[in-house]
Amino acid sequence: xxxxxxxxxxxxxxxxxxxxxxxxxxxxxxxxxxxxxxxxxxxxxxxxxxxxxxxxxxxxxxxxxxxxxxxxxxxxxxxxxxxxxxxxxxxxxxxxxxxxxxxxxxxxxxxxxxxxxxx
Length: 119
Known about the structure:
The chain is mainly α. It folds into 2 domains: about 10-75, Arc Repressor Mutant, subunit A, CATH 1.10.10.10; about 80-115. The chain has helices at about 10-25, 40-45, 50-60, 80-100, 105-115; strands spanning about 65, 75. α1 packs across α3 and α2 crosses α3 (about 50-60). The chain starts with 11 loop residues before the first helix and ends with a helix.
């Protein structure tokens, strides 16, 4: 169930996007699940349809959902989108380390330190 917090510093579209990503990651929304229509979800949440449409567009761009025209929006069946994004980020990191002439061991140490800083 999606709940938007009007007091949050995150805009409603981002709260919606984040909750859908979390539901996919947790297995509450599995591949092939049809999401509510933009109008229906906007009505249910008491927000503008454009807000839901923006969240859906960003989810589709990131690979979490796919739109099938008039048939609706569905959770993507093309693997784990979060893992795909992580792999892309890793490739970009590796390319940047190469450009900077940072050896792999040092690059891994930098990445590990950055991840530790997030805890």
